[in-house]
Amino acid sequence: MKKDRNFLPSLIGIILLLLFVVLLENISALIPGLPQIFQPTSPLFTVLKKAAVYSLVAVSMNLLNGFTGLFSLGQAGFMLLGAYTYAILTVPSAQKEQVYYLFGGCAFDSSIVDIFGNVFGTSGVGGAVSMVLGCLIAIVAAGCVAGFFAYLIGIPVLRLKSDYLAIATLGFAEILRAIFQWQKLGPVTNGANMIKGFPTFSDFNITDGAGNVLVRLSTFVPFLISSICIMLIVLLIHSSYGRAFKSIRDDEIAAEAMGISLFKHKMMSFVISSFFAGVGGALFAMYVANAQAKAFTSVMTYEILLIVVIGGIGSVSGSVLATFLYVACSEWWLRFLDSELYIGGFKVPLLRNGFRMVVFSVVIMVIVLFFSQGIMGNRELDILSLIKRKAAAKPAEKKEERK
Amino acid sequence: MANALHLENITMQFGGVVSVNNLTLDVPEGKIIALIGPNGAGKTTAFNCITGVYQPTNGLIEFMGKPMVRNHPTGKDAKNYKGENADRYVKDPVLAPTPDRITGLGIARTFQNIRLWKSMTVFENVLTAKHQRASQNVFSATFRGNLAEENRMREETMDLLTEQGLDAYKDELAVSLPYGLQRRLEIARALATKPSLLLLDEPAAGMNPQETAELADFVKEIREKYDLTVFLIEHHMDLVMNISDYIYVIDFGSEIAQGRPEEVQSNKRVIEAYLGVTEEEEE
Predict the structure, then answer these.
(1) pTM of the model
(2) Inter-chain touch A243–B124, beta carbons under 8 Å
(3) Do A256 and B99 touch (CB under 8 A)?
């Protein structure tokens, strides 16, 4: 009953983390004169938002690759489905004409937010409620669409093993990307143009009538949604079904001989993983404030795969940690490598545009060669037991023995 | 006595190679039946036909009096078919259960080369085998809707481990156990699926004489305790002669003898085909 004992502390930990994020976001407004890093425009918040989004996608990929042993590379495709679903459903009807100007308006002329707006009103608390509800439903719908497509594609594809599955899912993602740029589908997908104007993270900031921000929630929102989704995935992994997934990863033949239906469980894992990838896609669209098919390339899938590998295949906390490290490095800490640097009169060699990617590649090669287990291997970060062990190493051991 | 398992004219042909040829055998309820034969005789293939890993090219398998697998050669197989009785099962609809469904019916198996789930502990290995008997769906499992069932599964697992003498190792990784205990754990895992027929594929492979003797007692013991029928493949003659009620001997896929242990032991063909060369085959 180990997992249930850990549940409450984890929940408290996540709530504390969320509160901390809210505090961090608003601290510059509370205490004036803080360094630039705490200002809302600092790269810190960009990194936090992007990492929150990516960590959900990474964990969803880990559910499939790490816990069920299905090597799938379709994550970007399912994110694309999620992003488009969310965008199409939430672009305000007033803006549809303008966004879809090439195609004379959108096939879906309304927006969920507006539908709720008709009920709750469009300003003040009513407007906030209708936007939150509308976005929430659109996000769930984004996941459902991705899950539904995963089900359809899963029927033929999940019979394939390892590399073949990877190729098939990668191909599926690429085909989706092409289809979504198809001009004929313009009234739905806006062709190769981006869809924008839908509610993004910053629309969740609480403002007064004049548009001044009272409480910033733009980093809190992705954190909240991601942590709820990751919690659900963790609960699933620790359930009877999660164990069945792991048994398929460890030994398919034994799993089948013990009565675990391979197809059913692989499909379940595939659909659930894609659902959360779809949700991640919706969040990604909110993060970049647009939805455009050409952003969801296979490079994005590789990026996420890389995060999963760095974090440790089969470790949720590893994936989350690795996401934050990866995003912080690529968006912030290693940025200096891209610009020329002078120390005194000395020009540091090699530093120029693009050098960051060289360093990155080397780091990745080192990790793969010498730390192939990743940061966490397949273990989980267990802060609680770490604290306990440090606080009272011996009494804790005695307790275990008595049990 | 009713038959737990009944094989009729089972033929398994891979391309032009006939692995199992026209095998007919009965496993009566509550007995320990052995299938022996030299290496490559087709014993494991016969097992794989029973457990649904392979669809036999021709023949009928009944479990507890009900047809479970039934097939006849079709397409290319029909042209190349070298066995007998090709027309006998044609009229019936083809039943094609998968291994997981067959386990659901109440047949559990172990493997010749141990197949435990490597990343899991002893406890989890047994607990996971209980998954298919659980009634919870993926949502109720995720949201812990049915904790009573989950707790019951854990209790049953613990009881099973205690009975098998594995409780001391419950939190260790399954692969870190000594070889004999891994075998025992594999049997415990098979028992967790609540079978009425247990198939053991060379349970004594790689065991020393003492472990083999222990295993013989163990198999008898679980047969009594769980009201099982046991069907096993074995190379160790000591074990087979000690525990089996009835023995089938196959060579090159075909049955060459059957009978009680002492009858088989003195059968000339068996000695020629099998017992005479056991010493050289020990590898």
Answers:
(1) 0.89
(2) yes
(3) yes
